[in-house]
Amino acid sequence: MTEKQTENPTLTSNETATRTYYESTDVDRFYDIVWGGEDIHTGIYDHATEPVADASRRTVERLADHLADHLSPGRTVLDLGSGYGGTARYLADRFGCDVVALNLSEAQNERHRAANAERGPDGLIEVVTGSFHEVPYGDGHFDAVCSLEAFCHSGDRARVLGEAARVLKPGGALAFTDIMAAEETPAEDLRPVVARLGVDALATPAFYLDQLAELGFDPVGFDDHTPQLARHYVRLTADARAREADLRAAISPAYVDGLLANLPLWVDAARADRLRWGVFHGRRA
Ligand SMILES: C[S@@+](CC[C@H](N)C(=O)[O-])C[C@H]1O[C@@H](n2cnc3c(N)ncnc32)[C@H](O)[C@@H]1O
Questions:
Q1: What is the architecture, at CATH level 2, of domain 13-284?
Q2: What per-residue confidence (pLDDT) applies to 24?
Q3: Nearest to 32 by CA among 243, 264, 265, 278
Q4: How many angstroms separate the CA atoms of 80 and 135, rounded?
Q5: How far is the CA of 206 from the centre of ligand 1 (A)?
Q6: Residue of the CA atom closest to atom 22 of ligand 1
């Protein structure tokens, strides 16, 4: 990857907060114990009691369907905010394409690299430490760009989409998911809910659709899967409660208490129709 410019840009306070969050042992163990340490995003559930890991994998499959025409051996996709690498491994396996997995958290990246070496497909995935606010690649480098539930952490989402557009080839495909607020939800109503993410407010679907249009993506679509959010947080809350003893054995009491208090807030906000979630997809002009 000769166009990679830097691996450790100076971090903003928003980025530092996000990195500190994901690099804490408590958060890392929570994602490992409850979420399975592979995919950490909202699932698309077939039925209400489906395991979180299966539903989360279905989300990756649906997102990948939007990239299918653009990915094959020799082509490259960029995953922004790549977590433990579940999406990167899926894309490399399914399409035989190269994947650049860009992620802020070096602790996650180390686990990601170890998982690639153990389970493959090693060689197709490059894990890069960096921020999606300043993607360390040149213009028009990628055939496709994707992201799963990472933009919710950003303090400047217009810039993230601008970076995604910049590094895409003309005609390249973008697909991403994010947790958002409903258009009419005042930001202060969600503040206690999103406190865990280290941001003041979430985006809305209209914000993303407007930004994509402004950046010249055409066509643009949004598959609205909002009803899945309540299901997902009900499942996560139930799993966290069922595994409370395991969590308490591995994670600090303050974190477990905060988590068990915070997860039901997501259930309440989803049931009150204050949140939105789904898959955005578009083609760069
Ligand atoms: C909820 S996790 C989702 C991880 C992964 N996409 C998945 O679905 O399994 C959010 C991810 O966004 C990453 N992230 C947050 N802010 C970032 C930034 N400014 N640049 C790059 N990655 C970021 C975090 O490190 C974390 O891996």
A1: 3-Layer(aba) Sandwich (3.40)
A2: 86
A3: 243
A4: 9
A5: 22
A6: 81
